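Subject: mismatched residue count in predicted assembly?

I count 482 residues in my input, but I want to confirm that the predicted structure covers every chain. Input:
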Amino acid sequence: MVDELLPKRGRDWALAALDLERLLLLLDDDRDHAARTYEHLRHRTIGLLRWWGASNGEDLADLTLDRVARKLSEGAEVPRDSVGAYVRGVARMVFYESRRDPHVQADIVALTVLPAVVDDGESQTLASLDRCLAALAEAERQLVLRYYGEGKAKQVRSQLAAELGVSATALRIRAYRLRERLERCVEAGVEAPR
Amino acid sequence: MTDLELRAYLLGHASDGSAARLEEQLLEDEDLFAALRSTEDDLFDDYVRNRLTPAERAQFVARYQGGHEGGHEGGHEGGHEGNSRRLAFARALAERTAAPATASSVNTASPSGTPRMGRYWLPLAMAATVVMAVGGLMLSRAGDVSPDDRAAVSPEPGVAATTATPAPTPAIVPPLVATLVLGVSRSAGNVAVIEVPASTPAVELRVRLNPADRFAQYGVELRSPANVIAWRGDGLMAVTEGQELVLVARVPADALTTGVHEVSVFGAHANATPEMLGFVTVQVSRIP
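Triage response: the counts match. Full output below for your records.
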């Protein structure tokens, strides 16, 4: 599993492998668990970079973790409970550096020009959503429709959580995961309508 | 971490210190990361369902639809394209989950004759004097203007002269033109009525702006009777016509359904938070 992480790196493979081992060791003593933790950390770093406005979050996240791994190899001491702070700091630097890249700048400028909504796409999205909703299990479909439905969200969600016998936080995460699935399904459907 | 704190972060309200702390935590905590994404989903839903305050709305537009300048005040999922997809999804979800009673009630005029609107729009409704003039219908099917078309709106003077000579085949059908004026007085606005024949490809909304409202770019948003965004135009430029400042937005006729629509207008300078300039209520009738 660890080896699967390596081809993503652009640097010398052997050197990168050593660096990566240090990072994995920092994340967890168990090697396989560390590899999963690494993937989760990468996923969240991508999200963070995108919140900052990076359109190439995946590339920048790889650069970030690459750099963190190299710093560790160079002797940087990072306590396990400070990994988040350290990675954020490096990600910040990588993000700022990327902003100075003229190619990235051009991309950012392009973001400020907003295309109008394409109504053909809207109806296509709705049709795709219907198909994706239909593909869900009945209980999941009802959960999505109620959780994201009309009405006062707080009341609706409290009632839903009580009915399902789960905490509000658990319900939220469940709904969020379902929505993620639906969004991916809708996107696939819009790109290749049946 | 409360919902309000997460929301504040996403809208760029959080201080640098608290934003940094949150970001450090979310890199370590998968549940917090999911909570933030979930809050962001709610924000997209609130945006398309018109449940944001005007200030939040402007911040949302600034964060998620351009004009951001990095720092923690970003908020992009895969860049602008990703945000457009998420908005489209949120709109579709709003359509699908809209309660039938709610959707139909949007079409119902209040006792005062003012259409029902979102709670945050009412003050703006009061502030906007809608001096509505539905302009000429330029259905220049080489002069073949049907009685129905004439009943819809009066033809523009310059176009009427061309209607004398019939032509054998229909030419390109120009858009229907509706002139709407955003006012600044506190008097209650009127409801503009636009009848849109089936053959009309688009409606050209010509919004007269307060000449003082000069911005680098403008945006126009059209909300459907179901209170979801039916069409939006951004990056629009206003033109000066005589003493008037006019913003032209060409709305595909397909985006218009029979019922009460809201047209809102934003102005924005480069890298600045868009400013809401007002809105107009439009009663649309589709003519078969």
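Chain A touches chain B through 58 residues (CB under 8 Å). Marking this ticket as 'not a bug'.
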